[in-house]
Structure formats: structure tokens, C-alpha cells
Amino acid sequence: MNIDNEKKLQVSAIKDGTVIDRIPPLSLFKVIEILGLDHTGNQITFGTNLDSKHLGKKAIIKIADSFFEDEDINRIALFAPDAKFNIIKNYEVIEKRQVAIPEHISGIAKCFNPKCITNHQNVKTRFTTKKGKEGISLVCHYCEKITQTKNLQIISKS
Amino acid sequence: MPKSLISIHDLSKEEIVHILDLAAQFEQSPSPALLNDKVIATIFFEPSTRTRLSFETAGNRLGARVIGFSDVGNTSVTKGESLKDTIKMVSHYADLIVIRHPLEGSARWASEVSSVPVVNAGDGANQHPSQTLLDLYSIRKTQQHLDNLQLTMVGDLKYGRTVHSLLQAMSLFNAHFTFVAPPELVLPTEYKHFLHQKNLDFIESCDLLPHIPKSDILYMTRVQAERFPDPIEYEKVKNSYSLTAFMLQQCKPNMKILHPLPRVNEIADDVDNTPQAYYFDQARNGVYTRMAIITYLLDQTK
């Protein structure tokens, strides 16, 4: 059996849908949460700690009969900046889309500052993203404090 | 959305200079009846007598009428009303809202739900732009300009929001900074990054005296006992950052001492009578600066 076949067997193929590739294994469940996959009715398979040329180890998610908007794709950028979305139609990859880090994000993450108004009243969070040495950080539009990726808490998609 | 003043970052260099120019005009004629037909609301969700009186004096000197509350005890907030609802209501009563609130970001949120301009008079440890503008006004007034000044900031540089806002504003004017603080209260890294990005040089030190002779402005802040986990540590440092008249012997003739007040023991009483003491005039400048802020925002809204 050649390597290609072996790879395919690790997670079964789908006919139509989306394959999200190159997710860091530690971010798998965060990605599932952000995309709201934990409460969808679609068929989902995922694999984690698979070998990856780029990341060493990676996770992938296959979602049958489901396609994502750019906005959704970029929502996972904070946790899976290298992720690729492969759009599958009739077992063929018809399009590949790369995650891009949006300049502004809204309603995805919680502000880390316990004294921020967004943690006390019904105010949707808003951030500007900033790329630094320690990865991406978020500057709160309201309290102006910085939330590092390692401190990020996700507000699930409803 | 009407123009509000929430953070010093909301203002360009030109707008800052414009507001300072307006303040200078109000210093020349401190009671112009420009806003006879206006109502200003000062809504203070936590007490701050100095700031509230300064804003209310500014409003009254402009001829406006002033409504508001100075703590939440007797308001519908105690019944659980959201900030959004309070602001929606008040913005139907008043032409401009001055807000102070303990939560950070509250003033920004208020400005997004209000139909009239909002002035942030302090949102927790975040921003207090009218304080920064009055500091800038005091610096410009005493030095005749704002460019290329030697600014020495002393005391609690870690938590002091006036320090953070002032250094960001002064970075627009190519200031040279010296930061003097005990190791527990040094300037946070994010502000050092900010200055690096702006290509501005700065010195950090734990020792005040050697930096006095070169300074144009000595910006003193309060070192608070509650910032120290160990009271002994506080006792060790509290007097090393207090200024006495004796320490001013070598200072430049144009040097002025600023302090956002209230002071405790960081400036000795014998400094009050030196030509360098400026902190009480600084408080008076607050009224002119706030008159300028109010008229500027209402002018933008016309």
C-alpha cells in the first residue's frame, strides 16, 4: 500500500463537503467549538495527531454537506493560522481556501480583562488583531487591554 | 454617531493643539455665555469630587445648565438598569454627557449607544483624556511649546493611567522621557514597545535626584501603599520618591512640577512655595481645558 492510500484511510473520505486541514492538534476542539460543529446535525469525522510535513502533527476535520463563508473561515485564524479549507464536490477537491487573520474580530473571543465592560453587561466584544513575537494578540475596542492567544476564551457560535 | 472624547487616541495632533488653543482663549475670558441653550449631564457611577466639580464648573462658566448624579446610590442603577438604558435615557435629556464609571470600556460603550457627545471622565484604570489634555495644556503654558521636551515621570508608572496617557500624547511631540520608579512599579513593557516603535529614546532609573537638573517637566504621581504586597517594601521606597525643596537646587529655571493630585507624601510642603511648584495651577487649567473639550464636541455636532 502506498503512502497516499495509507493517508486516506486514516480518516474516511466524504462525497460533498469541507475538509479542514493543517489544524494544530491542540487547537482541534477550539476549532470545533468556534465553528459550532458540536451542535450541527451533519456527519463529521475528525482525526488528530496525524503526521504532517508542515506542522509535525496535525488534526483534520471532515464535515459532510457543509460549506463555510470566508467570515467563518477567518474565525479560526487565531488558533489555526495555517489551516486550509478544501471544498469537496463528488469526492474531488474543487477549491482550496487559506485562512487569513482578520484585522477586526467581533463576538468570537472574550476579553481577558475582568474589569472590562464586555464581561459585565450585554456588550458584544470587539477587537483589533495585532501580530507580535508571541503570536497574535487582541486589543479590546472597549477597555484597550491586550488579550494574548494563550489566554483566549471562545464565545461559541450559537 | 456624534463626536465623543473617550480616549486620548481619538484625537489627532492637530485636534489636540486646537483644543489647547481653545482652552487658552477661555483662560483669557473665563465666562463666555456660549452655551445658554444647552444642558450638560454629569453622570458619575463612582465618586470623584475633583473631576466632577471641574466639569460642572466648566459647564456653568459656559452658561449651560448642569444635571446629573454623583454616585449610584439613589438611581435606577441599583434596580439593575443596564448602562445602555441609562445612557439612552440621559441622551434624550441632555446635549452632552460626561461619564465616570468603574468598568473599563464603559465610556466607549456609552458613546456607541448615545445620541449626543460623550466625554469620558475616567473608566476604571483605562482612560481619562481630559486629565491628559489639561496636563498638556499645563506643559505648553509653562514651556511655551510642546516639542522636544525633557519629561521625567516619577512614582507609580505601572498602574498610573495618567502617566500612560500622557506619554502616549507627548510621543506626538517628540518628547525625551525619563522614567523613575521603584522596581515593583516600573513602566509596563507594552508602553516601552510603543516608544520603541515611535523611535523615541527613554531612560529608566530607580533614582530621582540625578535626573532633576536636565528635566523641563517633573511629573510626580502617588505611590500607593496598597500596590505593595508587603508593607515593609512600601516603607522602604515611599520616601525615596518624595520631592523636597532641597532637591531642586540644580534644576533648570523653566522646570515645573506637575502632579495629578491628590498628593500624599511624594511632594513635601516646602516645595509648594518654590517657583517650580505648578500642581495647583494645573488643577485650575483643568476648568479651561474642559470648557474647550465641551465646546469642541458640541461644535462638531452642530
Descriptive overview:
The model of chain A has no long low-confidence stretch (mean pLDDT 86). By secondary structure, chain A is mainly β. Chain A contains 3 helices and 9 strands; from the N terminus they run αβαββαββββββ. Chain A has helices at residues 3-10, 28-34, 70-75; strands spanning 17-23, 44-52, 56-64, 84-89, 92-98, 104-106, 126-132, 135-140, 146-148. Chain B contains 9 helices and 9 strands. Chain B has 2 domains: 8-128 and 286-297, Rossmann fold (3-Layer(aba) Sandwich), CATH 3.40.50; 129-283, Aspartate/ornithine carbamoyltransferase (Rossmann fold). Chain B is of the alpha/beta class and 302 residues long. In chain B, the strands form 2 sheets. In chain B, strands 7-6-5-8-9 form a 5-stranded parallel beta sheet, with helices on one face. In chain B, strands 2-1-3-4 form a 4-stranded parallel beta sheet, with helices on both faces. In chain B, β1, α2 and β2 form a beta-alpha-beta unit. At the A-B interface, loops of A face α4 of B.
Query: Low-confidence parts of chain A lasting 5 or more residues at pLDDT below 50?
Result: none
What is the mean predicted local confidence, pLDDT of chain B?
A: 93
User: In percent terms, what proportion of residues of chain B is strand?
Assistant: 5-15%
User: Care to count the β-strands of chain B?
Assistant: 9
- Kindly report the oligomeric state of this protein: heterodimer
Please summarize the sheet with the most strands of chain B: 5 strands, parallel
CATH superfamily of the largest domain in chain B: Aspartate/ornithine carbamoyltransferase
Radius of gyration of chain A, in Å, reads 17 Å
What percentage of residues of chain A falls in helices of 4 or more residues?
Answer: 10-25%
Structural class of chain A: mainly beta
